[in-house]
Every structure is written in structure tokens, then in C-alpha cells.
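Re: the multi-chain job from yesterday

Posting the exact lines I submitted so nobody has to dig through the queue logs.
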Amino acid sequence: MVIVRDTLVDALVARLRDGVLSGRYPPGAYLPSERELAAEYGVTRTSLKHALSRLAQLGLVETKHGVGTRVLDYLSSGGPELLPMLVVADGPGWLEETFQARREIGALVYARAAERRGAGHCADLRALHEAVAAAQTADDAQLAECEIHRVLAAASGNRVYGFLVNSLLNAYLPVRQLLIAPFRDPGRAAGRLTPLVEAVCAGEAGEAHTAAVRYLAETERLMLSGEDR
Amino acid sequence: MVIVRDTLVDALVARLRDGVLSGRYPPGAYLPSERELAAEYGVTRTSLKHALSRLAQLGLVETKHGVGTRVLDYLSSGGPELLPMLVVADGPGWLEETFQARREIGALVYARAAERRGAGHCADLRALHEAVAAAQTADDAQLAECEIHRVLAAASGNRVYGFLVNSLLNAYLPVRQLLIAPFRDPGRAAGRLTPLVEAVCAGEAGEAHTAAVRYLAETERLMLSGEDR
DNA sequence: CTGGATCAGTGGCTCATCCACTGAGCCATC
DNA sequence: GATGGCTCAGTGGATGAGCCACTGATCCAG
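And the result, C-alpha cells for all chains:
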């Protein structure tokens, strides 16, 4: 386990972000001036500006020179990069919707990959599949599992799907412990993955699609119920 | 037309980002130290830090205290928020893949919305549809069209799809001129939208799905060919 | 009523300076 | 020879004072 110490700016971003997500700073409203905020949080204006700059990059606020910093409506203008923080902020609601999107988009990606399968991709997939089965620790299995999704996304022939999968996987990071559960027993994980991986490698598009949907639905049911821990 | 003057930090971000995307700073490599970079670009270290902070938020680099700033592999760790800059950077390739993803995910969203249609959503949709038809300028039509996508995403009952749609729509912003083309003639735009909107409002899920795919495919063909301008 | 000047308040940016962290290398100790 | 602690150079983190540029409201002269 690596000890990670948040930087001051990270902490500031978290505080301000929570203020926005919780509605303390509602959409359309202006934040207090940088000088006021800096005084309120007991930091330099420089540090506060760093934090605001990152909030702006996230699409949570918008800063205009000479005017002020306005809160945006993240629901109507935000992107999936907000998911990780939303999942921890209000939990189950966002998590379930993320799972649903992942399942449906995952099925799309899997079907595409099956259609376009190439020898190289299949080799990667088999190797990763074996890595999951052989993994001694839950962490290893989890990492390998993530890699499988990424390899499939790459095999879909559309890099945009790679980005979407990355975002959806990142949304899980904060609740990683829950996710690891189904992989505590490497044998079971292997058993569950086989049909999907085999189907994709064999190029059976229709069957792969069906298998993918079934696999993802089952996996997520386990994750949400917290069963098998 | 509003005149937007980029801030110094914006320009810095653009320069550094191009350096990363172009491979001048390859994945895994370390950037020069902040002091060196600041000198090279003729700016204060403070400003440079702001820029690096935003690059980090974008997932392009990773900064570690006492060590340095390392370039990440955006293809394997980035999210769809990178699309806008990739589309302008190397154009057609990313644009086509974005269109494909938008078409397939759009169809998913449309089908979902048709399944779960509610009176309120349908009213919104009809109003927007009429706004597109009535729009006097291409800009208006484009904005209303974006709104239709957002309303549909909202009607799908999954806020994550809203985020995904936002990201994909944002990817178009840099090439907005191209996109506006099919809407130069409001009458045609209206004619093209009708079947989809009607189908969703009528709740014919299967037909809506088919119509959505056909509509999106046609629209994007026009966009890519640049025809009808 | 209009157009320009003023002014208070806001964010943009700089500078000089110090602190905290990391990793490499040295060296005495075991 | 291996180990553990030390120093040191180089890196990013943070400060705070200060100045500049922009915006919008207000006021006033025309």
C-alpha cells in the first residue's frame, strides 16, 4: 500500500467541488471573489486560483476576467470525467446508472470487437484472461480485468470507445473494494470470463454479444449486492 | 460574434498539449523542469504551474513532488474530454470515429427514450423540434439540435448517457462550421427530424431505433462529405 | 437621451523567496 | 560486502506583496 498525501490544492479542489455538487454554490450563482475565498479557506490567492483553474477544466465553473467565477450546471454541460466524484458523493444512484451504461456500451464494444477480431488482439485477450485466472491477489485480478476491457475497446477499432471505457472504469476506482469482490476466488472469475473471451476470439458476433450482456449483467448484480465478500 | 481573447495560461496549455499530442514529449518521458520550461516560454513559473495543473487535470501528464512531470499515454488512460483537441489536431480520423460512436450510442439513447417516454419529455421534444424548424439562422438550428440530443439523453433515464452525449457533442465544437451545413435550410432540417421525433413521442421503440440509426447515418454522411454548403 | 469619463471591484500575472520531497551518492558501521 | 543513515542537489509546493487589465455601474457634460 502506497501512502498518498494530498496536496493543498487537491484539498481545495475537493472542498470547492463538494460545495458545487452539494448545491451550496448553485448553478448560475457567482462564487465569492478570489480574495474572499482565499481568506475564508486560509490559503493564498495563488493556491486558490490553481484550484479554481482545475474546477474550470472539469466544467464545474466558468471564470471571466473582471467579472467573477460562475457555477455551471454540471448535469447539462458536464462529461463522464465527473463520474468518479459523483459516485462517491451520492453513491448508489450514480453507481447503478454507470453500471447500466457500462453494460450497454460494453456489449456494443464487445460485438464490434467480435466482428473485427484479429490474431493479435485475440492473443492479447487470451493472455490477459490467463492472467486473471492465475492472479494470486484480488488487486492483480482487478487490474487484469480492467485491461481486458481496454483491449476489447482497442479491438473495436474505434479509439473513442477506448476513451468511453476509460471514463466508465475510472468511475469505479473510488469504490474499488466493492468491485474486487467477485474476483476473490480466481477460479470463479476465470470460469465466468471464459465464454465471453472464447466467443470473441472465435468471432461469433451474435453469440459474443449475448454472452457479453449476460456476463456484464451478472457481474454487476454481484457488485451491487455486495454478495460473495 | 463575440471576441474571445485567450489568456496566457490558455495559450501555454495549448502549446504544451500540442507538444504532448504531437509526440514531441512522448509518453513516459519527463518534461523539462518547471524552471526550465518557464524560461523557455518566457513566463513565470507560477503561470507555467497553472498550465501544468490543467494538463494534469486533463490526464495528459502526471506531476510528482520532488521528482518531475511525466507524460502519460493518453490513448490508454484518457477520456472523451480529450476529443475536442484531438479532432482539431489530426482531424478526419478522430472525427469519423467520434461520429460512429455518436451514431451507435445515439441509437441506444433514442431507443431507451422511446421505451420510457413521458409526457413532459415529449412536450420538450416537440417544442425543440419546432424551434429547429423555425430557426432563422444556422446557429439557432444548431443549438436547438444539440438541445434535442440532450433532452433525449435526459429522457433515457440515465444521467450517464447525458454526460456521454455532452462529451461527444463537445467534440464537434471545434469544427462547428462543418456541422451547421445540413441546417442551412430550416425546412430540410425539419423534414429530416420529423420521423425520429414522431416515433419517439409515439413510443414505437423498435421503429424509433431504426429511424434513429438511419437519421444519424444520413446526417453524418452529409457532414463528412461537406456537401450542401 | 446619448456618449464619454470615472471608479470600485474583479481576475490575470509577476516576482522573489522559502519549504518539502525525492533520489543518488557517500560513508561509517556491522 | 551489506546495511543503514547522512548529505546534497534538484524538483515541485506554497507564499504574499504588488501591479496590470478587464468589466460594469454610475455620473456628468453635451
